[in-house]
Amino acid sequence: MTTPPSSKIYLRTPPEAGKKSAARTYIIYFLTGNPGLVEYYRTFLTHLYGLLSRDTASNRDVEFQVYGRSLSGFEMSTSEIKTMKWRKQPPYGLQDQIRHAEEDVVDLVEEAKNQGGRDVRVVLVGHSVGSYISLEIIRRLRAHGMAGEDFDVRIVGAVGLFPTVVDIARSESGIKASPFLKNSNFATIASIIVSFLTFLLPVSLIASLVARFAGFPGDAAHTTASFIKSPFGIQQALHMARDEMFQIDTDIWDEDIWGATEPSKHPHPRPTLRFLFARKDHWVADATRDALISSRGRFSYGGVEETDGMGENWKPIMEIDEREGWPHGFCISHSVPVAEKVAGYVRDIVGKDMQRK
């Protein structure tokens, strides 16, 4: 790979003149982890789109689109950064990322409708901190709806992959990183040091070093090298990580997100939530994961839900990968099997939504 990594991946069937649009369009909106380069996930998103499109190849009732973009500040060139729209320069904090992604979802739905989409709905898929951002987007958009401000964006479900949604500082990596990230100048100092050390090194050489010492495949090594050489990448990643340590702590969402026995008062039904945890995750402590499942979810293993039939089917299914051993950074070498897993989650979410109005 010699071209710079893309900051946006949008997979869809181009509209054709005279061809009737699908009755319902589902946009799978993907939110990356940190570092937030969507190019790490190209294989994952492409395979996911292929699986979902295969399901609807002869069915014009449903159309799938898969969209993902790099988080703000991780763009490969300064010209790509929307400084005018975001009204500030990088680095961007966690709350900035949530606001930017929320606006992006709204704009994407509007664009799809302007291009002929008759009924456009959204399924969010988030990896790591992207799961946290997903839940916050749902909370904020539903709050707008309750206030009578916006009913146009309908999020019908969300999938959290190896989610860091509570107590990230208590994880193995969080404990190690916290002492450094407490220093407000650490991100700036580290980025200056990295820039100095790599200033004269071409991307190709850095990619070769990453592939050799980190064991990354060629595409991931090139993306990592481009990230290191990008204008704000290192500073952006560390600045955002500092926010994650301080802000991702307690469970901040209510029953309108997690679910309840009684129907929601919101005009749209509550989104269907699915979570996939690793058996061992250096960014999610076992105790944190188990406590979240106990308090908010239904445990699932091998497709069997522990509390099925016990009156709690409204709870999100939270599955622990006990069999495959997928790592937190699945996008490096395990994109295809995780995409197959996510396709199953999306089919389940869409199947439930199709039964609604």
Describe the structure in your own words.
- With 357 residues, the protein is α/β, with parallel strands linked by helices.
- The chain has a single domain (8-168, 250-354), classed as Rossmann fold (3-Layer(aba) Sandwich), CATH 3.40.50.
- Helix content is 43%, strand content 15%.
- The protein contains twelve helices and nine strands.
- The chain has helices at residues 42-55, 83-86, 94-114, 129-146, 172-181, 186-198, 203-214, 218-229, 233-247, 255-258, 286-296, 335-354; strands at residues 8-11, 24-31, 62-69, 120-127, 154-161, 272-278, 298-301, 304-305, 317-321.
- The chain has a nine-stranded mixed sheet, sandwiched between helices.
- The longest helix is centred in the first third of the chain and has 21 residues, at 94-114.
- It is globular.
- The termini are far apart.
- 45% of the residues are buried.
- Keywords: Hydrolase, Lipid droplet, Membrane, Transmembrane, Transmembrane helix.
- InterPro entries: AB_hydrolase_fold, LDAH.
- Its main location: other.
- One of its GO terms (molecular function) is lipase activity.
Query: H/E element string?
Result: EEHEHHEHEHHHHHHEHEEEH
Mean pLDDT: 90
Name the structural class. Answer: alpha/beta
The number of domains is 1
In one word, what is the shape?
globular
Write down the CATH topology: Rossmann fold
What fraction of the residues are assigned to beta strands by DSSP?
15-25%
Subcellular location: Lipid droplet
Pfam families: LIDHydrolase (PF10230)
Transmembrane segments: 186-211
GO cellular component, one term: lipid droplet
